[in-house]
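Service request form, structural biology core

Requester: graduate student, group of Dr. S.
Request type: structure prediction, single chain
Budget code: on file
Notes: please return the result as structure tokens.

Sequence provided:
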Amino acid sequence: MNPRRSRLCVRVFALVAALLGLGASAFAEPPATRLTVFAAASLQEVFRGLEPTFEAAHPGVDVVFSFAGSQELRMQLEHGAPADVFASADEALFAPLQAANLVQPPVTFATNGLVLVVSADRKATLTRFEDLPTATRVVLGAPEVPVGRYTAQSLDRMGGDFRARVEARVVSRELNVRQVLAKVKLGEADAGIVYATDARAAGGALGVVPVPDAAQVRARYGVAVRVHATAPEAAQDWVALLTGPAGQKALSAAGFGAPAP
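Core staff response, request fulfilled:
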């Protein structure tokens, strides 16, 4: 081939390649807006169930969840984690975050109660909350996480030495409620105290024993938008979904109570 024609062909091919590249970028999908939601472990099912509804109403928004103990998530926010929304199983955790100007004022969106879950091996013999001190192996939430604090309050309300007798049987303390549930499901503990919604999500494999009214502690769930959210509008819309009819219906179906006044 003529050298001159060869060079011309190379230039033509380069130009075509450049035009094709420009065309591809011109018609490429715009990058999605990432909405990062930090949420208490007990909210996994209901939040994932709301995700398709939210994303359908917000084209281009990708909801990404991080589920863990509320206390752990709070600490991550204090250390600069770039979440847009924080949903906690304990409203008290918002006070230090607000004091540090990390979150906007929270909104209460749900409540929850405690139940005793019993392993398949013990559910025929451990049928009352009062029987808990007879369990050989008990697993509870760690004192620093919401379910652990609520549990301690509940045990104290039983009076006498009930709490001490139960804690003498404790084989592990977990950093979130789902870890408590998992230990009982796996047979690594005879019983544990979890939220009512977690026991419901576990299905019928475990025994579920109600906590007496006098010892019951109600968890109040709050949600707040981070002050420097990267997707502030989408974050506000997520809060609106939780507090609106669709979100409240989904929460109720999952066993959560309505926000207390």
